[in-house]
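Box 3.1 A note on notation
Throughout this textbook, protein chains are presented in two layers. The first layer is the amino acid sequence; the second is a token string describing backbone geometry. Keep the layers aligned when reading.
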Amino acid sequence: MAQVMFLLQHIIAQIQLLLIPQFIRLAKKTDGRLIIDDTNYPKYGLKKYARKLKNLKTSGYEDGFKIVFFLWESSGHRILLGFALWHKPGLSRLRNEFKLKPKIVLADGFYSIDKIVKRLTDYGWGFVFRWICNRKLSDTPIKKLIPRGYGEKIGYLKNNSKVKIFRRKNRFFETNRMLMNVKNMVSLYKKRWTIKEVFRILKVCIGINRCQQHSVFAQELFFYCCLVAFYYLERMKTSTIYKLKQTVNFQSVYFMIFVLIAIYYAIKNLSSVLNILLPTYSFHCIAEYP
């Protein structure tokens, strides 16, 4: 029993990335886009893990940490595949362990670093990222290569990754698909904003920031249950978040989250042998994706 408890504590200590296999299997049935983005999670009680984060709304600072979400979007259907804390890597697991192959990867300029670009190119995954305007392409500032409001240029990063940069007024975009034109790139990048609506649903409707526990494991477990709740809300949604708020009693959503947590702990305590990884446990009541 002591060995089981030691292994359990070791697993809990290593939890910083959680992917839901059942949701990933549903996503693999569709030809979709993988959208990656992060959001601030202010949490003052977790002093050991929290750090100073800038609040863009108030221009002030708050203690907390970043949560990275992996969203699968296909023909208006959205599935949250999982989350990671403190920007822990998850792309390698999605590709190597779950064999996921998105049609395109969308993210903002934070994820346009050379390391991620090279990894996605090696995977054979196409991507569209925002490009930071003060960076260099082929050892030349991008503003010198494209001085006017519109244009495009193909070049190499410092790690010899070949990319194509578009400029549209004051915005720069990056892709590893050399045949893509600026119209298609801008159209694809606009689809990234669907994850902002997902953040709003998670925070306003589901209440992902309402967990008051000071344990990282408890916080991650609450996030997990919120992702399951979001999946069911997606299945019953009408069209917009505002209609969703009118048609759903969110007190019952909170109740469902607490029930899921109770089921989780019941299974954990009744299990005599730790033959499953607790973070990857999924509830078998998940219905098939339409």
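The chain has one domain: 2-280. The CA atoms of residues 91 and 116 lie 9 Å apart.
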